[in-house]
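A common beginner's mistake is to predict each chain separately and then try to dock the pieces by hand. The better habit, illustrated here, is to supply every component at once so that their relative placement is modeled jointly.
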Amino acid sequence: MELDNANPTIVNPSELPSYRERRKIKDESRQKQGIRQLFMGKSSYAIDPFYLSDYSDTDSDDSNVEPIDEQEIYDLIAPITDPEHPFSLASLGVVKLEDVHLGSPTDPTKAAALSHVLVELTPTVTHCSLATVIGLCVRVRLDQALPPSFRVEVKIKSGTHNQSEEVNKQLADKERVAAALENAQLMGVLRNMMKTCLEP
Amino acid sequence: MSNTGVQEWMVAPSLKDDRNSAEQDIVTKVAESCDAGSIDFPTLIKDLEPYVGTEQEDLVVVGRGMALLPLILDHMKAEPRTRQDVQLLVTYLCLRLKNESEVSNFRYGLDQIADCLLILTKWKKFVPSDSVVVAKSIFSLAAGKINTFIDLTPSTRLKFYKIIWVLVENYERPLLRDMGGDSFVGGLVELSELEKSAICLKDLFALYSKIGKAWSLTPDGYTQLWDCFIRYFPITLGASQKDDQPKPEELKDLLRQCFTANDFFGKAAFETLLGNIDADQGANKKKEILLTLDACVSTYSIKTLLEWSSKIWDTIKFEIWNGENDEFIADALHILNGLFSTLSRSDWSWDESTKFSSFIDGVVKEIFDRLSDMQRYVAGSARMLLAIGSSSSLALRLVMKQTLPGIISMAQDDHAKVSKKSLFSVFNAILQARVDLAEEARTYENSYQEGSPEFHQTPQSRAQDEHNLVQDMIRFREPLSDLYLGAISEVKSDADTDSALATAVVQGLVLLIRVPNLFEEEKRSILQILNQSTLDDSTSADLQSTTLSAIREIATFDPLGFQETTLPQFIKRLPEEIIGEDQSDVPKPESELAMRYLENLGLIGCTSLKNHDELQSALIKKFDQTRARKGQLTYLNILIAAARRALGLFDSSLPTSPCDARISNPLDERRGPYAHIVFPFLDRIIGVSQPASGSGSYIGLQNSFDDSQPFDDFTVDMLGQMITTSMTSEFYELDQTSSEMTYKKTENILQSFDRSQPEGTPSALQTLFRNQEDLAIVKDSFASQFDFDKWPLDRVRAASLTTALLAGVNPKDKSQLPLGIHVGDVAAAMIKGSISRNEKFSQSRLAKVSMLSLLQLLVNKFGAASQHPSTGDISVLQIMLDLVDGQASGKINYISEEVENIYRTLAYFSAASLAAYSAESATQLVERMLSGVTLPNYGQKVAQSFRLLLAPSPILNKQHFCTIRPLRKGRLFDMAGKRLIEMWRSESSPETKANCLVALAGIVAYIDASTLVENIDLVFPAFLEGTNIVSDEWAKATFIQTIHTLVPLAPKTIVSHLDSIINRMTLRTRYPKDNSPKCRVMALEVLRALVAHVDKGKLIARKFLLIAEVDVALNDPSREVRSKAAACKIAWFNLT
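With all components supplied together, the output reads:
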């Protein structure tokens, strides 16, 4: 089968923004500081119940709350594999952090308040025939991974695809999306694309 | 028939009993008769004739008869008296081999003939001219393509090849004289034409190589020989390799030796190799071509190479410039280096106007043109210049002459086509070549042997070459210095500089220091610049890391540079003082700075023993300077932490091989590994004091400045860690008692010090290395030094050094015993101190921990549990049990803190006893712990203390020579785990039930899953209930983690509890406020693991309800939990 874009531009994964990478770097830099670690390190007897004062590691105060943000939404969809190439949507530049928009609920005090997520996709070529499949996969991924209080909208970024209006219409049509998801063959393709999201 | 034993031999197979022994007797008897001369070979052959002669039709009989001959020859202890005897036998055997009359049974027994000839040709009485007869007979086996030879087994063929090897090795002259080299080679070619057996090829290749190297043949002869082996190139072996077969690499190497055996092969070799290098072929073939080419350029004569050098260059250069495979590029560079090394050899009369210099000039000019024109060729070109330059002084001089002026101009030109970074890589390559040559010259000089063929240049001639090279290099000194120093200041001032440029410049500066006789005067200032870059805050982190690595490298080859420049420069940059205290978790900026400098200094200083010693000595000096100022305890602690860190870095970098590495002051009687580092700190921190109130003296701590600021827990902890490192270090020293160069483990500081003291002096375990003067002051109160209630806190802190010392004592080393302390007394004192509610102990965590650690070491390593204190009549174990029982029975009224202390001490005591597998004491101690679980006010803490029993410990470990028995885990499970489950079932109080589960978690967390699987029906209900514990998150997380481990190991049990598991896990994720993030994460991992390991049919029915629950976790406050929830949901969503 002929590919829509046989030679796409690939971004080095190490240059992609990710919470996971940041955590890794932080851990490494901590390990490097030998004297500092000796000087500021915790006692190796921390397991001794008689040594510790009563403590609790439950999330009892608001300071432990890490709200969902654009980076986290990006991390959910970045690893999705392109249906044509063995690269992630992030490495191909189809999804970008700056194209993930998160709208806060108008009244956050209400439990049922909805947040709105808009993801704009940039196909690798303007005639990409798989833009709908990619959009559908991003949408399914976010529908699955975000809490029900989030409304997800996936669009093709303006000016990046010849038939963006048509594709956007399909992606916004809930009934068409639901019908597509009943198609076993299509779901097989989407599952394959999302396999990489399951990797630790 | 004469009595030669032939007849007995022939009937021996019919013997029923002990046939082998009978045969052996016959052979021995005949061999002895031959040795004595009573039987000669003609008689033997005559006797054998009926069995092996032309008339015999039974081939089994022929084989049997022929088998006797090699056995007799092998058993003979002396050669026959006359050469005629040997010649007769050789002739007889050769006749059978040649078989000109085509007797059918002569085709049998060839293996035995080969055995005989292999023995006979090695005999001194073998007639040299018979070598031709033997050779021709063997060659006749394959003559006329009758293929008799190739039909033989490989082992028989191998024997014939070995005979030929013996002939070539020993009878070269008769063979060449009577047969002619070409004729011999012709026979050998025909014989081995169809050979494919690896085991035979090994000998054949050696034979070809030997003949090619040693024999003088006509061109036709060499051509025949070449044809013999070239058809095997490149050699490939089948997948099924037997043990007795040669390794592929061995065969490849032997085949390469055939290529290089004679210059005559040069033409054919280069045509074949160069012609095939770019052919469409597998990677293995190409690799073999490159390796063979490398062998050829390193071995052939200069004359031969000169004919081919241009063609070799034309082929190899593209391999390097355009190649994509790093391994091939490295091989090609090696060929280039080999070619120029051979061409530079002084056994060929060169001068600079000869073809060599014009060839090298042409090559280097081509490289320069290429690198100055296109960026992409620079890296390959630089590597080529390194390969050529490092081949000889002359080559490097020509390289420099041709390239340096041009590259220097380009580096000064802002509009050059090539980046600066790339140009520095070219300079670096040339400098590296110079360094490589200097190292090679040093090796050459050290191993030079006059007259040896491999040393084709005299030291005087090399010295002249070196002199010329130095003169040539000096011409470029100034521009190189300007370029590198200019670039480093540019790199430092521009934060956005490409890190690759910075790396190239820094690497170049290291090389400038390494190049001999070039920057001798500037070496130190270059090092200062690198030091400065590491020290400056404004330097980028990348550049700091690059310069740090460079300084480390310099410190290894230039220790004086470290001692005279780097060390003082770093120490000078340390703050004079640090004012104020650090916050609990954020150090002051000055502290951060000092720690960064000292950390880097430690990393540089651990590069050698001498560097490390100098660093430690500088640290102690700085310690003294700082101590002279008031309020500097934080800084002093940073300095001692730096000493501890550097010691750890150095000790862990010690090579495993023994070395005479101990440096100690011969005047200092206190010796041992790191004594010169540990004792100065000990002398400054430990001292003899008097309590403010009361009488007596004690060994305690000195003050950091005045009474207002004594040394604290951290100071003593660091010193203790240094002491333990010194005690456990793998240091060796030369054994002075042995006449040979043998090494013995160095005595540790404790052994060494105690041995040096006058008789009757207490061990340093107690005295902490105080001198006799100090000990005289303490003398009256020495017996009570471990009575901690009596002394101020600093005495207890100082006693933690006894723990540190004891941790390093190896109880299995008899030379370290007796200990020099009364084990029972000290252990009892530690129990007493540990349970004491004396207020001073609450001020020092170290004091409490070190008392418990000392107790553990005494119990585990020195059997303290069964020892009695010198003034008591009950054992240490009984003291502990009585304390617990007294509290439990209410006979003695303890306050709350004391009760907790009792149970804490009990847990530590039990852990030490259990690790040593002391059956009786461990059982009694754990029994008390189990009873403690039910205590209303203390039960929870006692339950939690079960996790101390098996958890990895900083004290109870193998590095400290403790006994850590693996079986203790299963034993504890049987002894306490099962009891706790029983108690959990039978107890009615919810608190006690929870305590039982908390205690169980402390055991389960550290035992093998296999033990749990064996007892799965017993334990699983408790585990499930454990996931609901509200009082202890650690225990709850442990049970969830354990269930996660069991999902793949016990699927049946999991299925039978499926709903319970799902309910409990979703309860964890539903209520984030009541469950720690760790519990929530693990719960989601359990739910996800179910998808992978449980029958899908069982899960599908629960799918939608579960997904709804996981949706709740998608809104969890913790990002990690949400991430796990998303992964869990997708796993369940995909269930079909």
